[in-house]
Design brief:
It is a single chain. With 322 residues, the protein is α/β, with parallel strands linked by helices. It folds into 3 domains: 130 residues, Winged helix-like DNA-binding domain superfamily/Winged helix DNA-binding domain (Arc Repressor Mutant, subunit A); 90 residues, Rossmann fold (3-Layer(aba) Sandwich); 88 residues. Helices cover 52% and strands 17% of the residues. It contains 14 helices and 12 strands. Helix 6 links the parallel strand 3 and strand 4. The longest helix has 26 residues. It comes from Paenibacillus naphthalenovorans.
Length: 322
């Protein structure tokens, strides 16, 4: 990222600060001012430049990762990735850049204050191009260690709703995240891993909390059961907690003849060490592509499926909401 690229935050705008930062970064990525492969500034450096809390920047980076624009690796930082989402963003933002540049020039020529112009533009859009009000919106809460992208995609598949993912760690440490989450939806979806925490967190706000769970497909259990006794098997997710969940599902199936290791892709040193000594590595969908590139002969996909009871719960809720 070029040193002359400076972001700004304006507490007087109605958009929360993390949204301001995220959209500026998406704009710069979209017009290729920030190119694929480049690193974003470290969170503490960005926070110091903007005079904000580091947790806010971490939240933005996590949101960008969740939306498919960056990858985050401990010890390396946050990198803009070459993905379909990036190409889609560039396709949208580049013609926008030309149009906005012309519009700003015309507004300035007429002496129209830009901030007022764009506030009025937003008002016009809200008045004349309203989105359907019956679109179901759900707030999904999960920790950063589990495969939250799997759950998000499954919730969307079953309900057809718009899904906003919020991490439990951010809700517990950053007040602005909780406030923004409260405004998004009256219904919260979370997993069995964090059901009690989430229900307690939202109890005073009278939020309806739906709890869902996932399991793994039988062919995978049969495959693992056929491994030689004493085989070294690593289970890898976004964080160690996710890896532990993956390993526990295998243990619950009474498969105890292997040596299991739970790892998060965020622990780069431990990850490399375990890949080298493992006979087999099972990776969640969120990290599979990255791990497969590192050890193609060892890495297999850990296929998760939504529990039938959870799918029924979401379907019934979607029907009642409509």
């Amino acid at each position: 990222m070029d040193n002359d690229i400076l972001l700004k935050v304006d507490p007087n705008l109605t958009f929360c600060i993390n949204t301001q930062i995220k959209e500026q970064l998406k704009w710069l990525i979209g017009i290729e001012k920030i190119k694929t492969g480049e690193m974003l500034p470290p969170a503490n450096q960005m926070a110091d430049l903007l005079g904000i809390n580091r947790n806010t920047v971490n939240l933005v980076y996590n949101q960008l990762r969740d939306e498919g624009y960056v990858s985050i690796q401990k010890g390396r930082g946050t990198q803009v990735i070459d993905s379909a989402k990036i190409k889609e963003l560039q396709k949208m933002r580049q013609p926008m850049h030309e149009l906005v540049t012309k519009t700003i020039a015309e507004a300035e020529a007429q002496g129209i204050p830009l901030t007022e112009f764009f506030k009025a533009s937003l008002a016009y859009i809200l008045l004349h191009h309203q989105t359907p009000t019956d679109q179901l919106r759900l707030l999904f809460v999960e920790c950063k260690g589990h495969d939250h992208t799997f759950y998000r995609d499954e919730i969307k598949r079953v309900t057809g709703a718009e899904i906003k993912t919020v991490f439990l760690e951010d809700l517990l440490t950053t007040e602005s995240v909780t406030i923004e989450a409260l405004d998004y939806s009256n219904v919260v979806v979370t997993t069995l891993n964090h059901s009690d925490e989430v229900k307690k967190l939202f109890a005073r706000y009278q939020k309806n909390v739906l709890t869902i769970g996932a399991t793994i497909e039988m062919p995978l259990l049969l495959q693992i059961a056929q491994l030689k006794p004493g085989s070294q098997v690593s289970f890898v997710c976004l964080g160690k907690a996710g890896g532990q969940w993956m390993a526990s599902r295998v243990q619950d199936a009474n498969i105890t003849h292997i040596q299991s290791h739970a790892i998060g892709i965020d622990d780069e040193a431990l990850l490399k060490e375990n890949i080298e000594k493992s006979d087999k590595v099972y990776a969640s969908a969120a990290v599979y592509s990255e791990l497969k590139a590192l050890a193609p002969d060892k890495v297999e996909l850990y296929p998760m499926v939504l529990e039938k009871s959870s799918e029924n719960l979401l379907q019934e809720f979607a029907k009642s909401a409509n």
